[in-house]
Fold this protein.
Amino acid sequence: MTQARLASCIPLPLEHKVLVTVIEKAKDWALMHGVGMRDKKHFTKDAIQIAPFVLLPSPFPRTEFNKAIELQPILNELMHKVAHDDDFLEHTLQNTLQVDEFTAKLFEIWVKVKDEGITQPISLGMLRSDIMLESRCPHTENQCAKHTPYCSWKQVEINSIASGFGHLGPVSREIQSYILRQLGHGDLIKNMPENRALSGLCSGIIEAYDLFGVPSAIVLFVVEEVSYNICDQRFHEFEISEKRPDIMIYRKTLNEIFEETTLNDKKQLMLEGYPVAVVYYRSGYEPAQYPSSKEWDARLRVERSSAVKCPSIHYQLAGTKKVQQALAAPGALEQFVRAELCARVRDIFTGLYSLDFDESGERAVDMALEDAERFVLKPQREGGGNNLYGADVRAALLRMRRARERAAYVLMERIVPPTVAGYVVRPGGAVPPPVTDLVSELGIFGVIIGTRDKIYCNRQAGHMLRTKLADANEGGVAAGLGALDSPYLLDA
């Protein structure tokens, strides 16, 4: 598949000696500024290694970046309204619940807490809209005001457990700024937008804490049994502690929450004698990460409590792929978005198709079987490594064509972004690395706090950029598939 190209911010390749020297400096800078992760193969709590990063910032059109920034509060409000529309969620997820056990268990908790009566009506949403430039223009030449080699950006997905890269997003700009200065191109840094994702996300937790209104309360971070992405996680804690030394933060797994917390008669979640004000889920929690009934019981206990949840159970359901597919259907957006904004939101959607057992689902299956390379098959799961592409789409649909399992997936038109040449620096990788073709995915963070009837705050809160090899399907940095990056804004 031929892809359009964008030019690197400085001419490549770099001279060999210069490249080796700057990479050596950059690696040391990375380790000393928290651009790091724990080694999955040789895990120890006493050491980190550099996180993969792109040496130079990747080009992104300024007009499209600004459009994404401006649109994020609208998407925040859309997700907030969807999360509070019981009928829409139930109708949209009814087929998925029959075949996706993880979503079904989340839904079961949601129904239970609704029937008991919601204890805490306030939700904290920390969202991330992931987008890619689309190089193929769907319009005729005289209708399209965009510029080659891109048309506009399209939304890959919107995530409701999405605060990862709150630190790594901004620090990517810092390390690449350092590299540009070392290469004698410090004048280019002005084209890299400021990124306050860490402070923006952490201020959301602080605002939710203050709305809880109990001075002795604590914030609880729910973490994995083993944390590899430790720098990104801990910097959120450090930022909150610096801004608000009065707020104590605890890190607990769901198993520990089951063993160590209780609900008092006020429905306060109690930990070591302190009421919990905010419960903040640090990971997407794959089904494999909820292996025990204790973890599900802990999740139910948290949801029953008076703590402000990030995300609350209905926010997590609103973030499923099936809901995002349903929002792309004709007439769906009009239920949640003001009429004058619907066209702007709909313009960012790429083709999303249901695989339910109905006429439209059968058409989608036939369409994908006819040209599998056009599509991505996406399950409900979060994180990298789960989507299916190309021949795997065809094989999976042939296997699932008559099976209920297919309703747990959605079909999405594949986005074809422009490529750019660059260097990816990896732990243990070749020095210097070769120049390779890369593609990027931009994430725009948003924070929204509110109840069904009132929104207390709604804002865009920074960004992150992940970049991968152009011929790679997945791009998760924590999964070892992508690299940290930051945008270099281009004027048309």
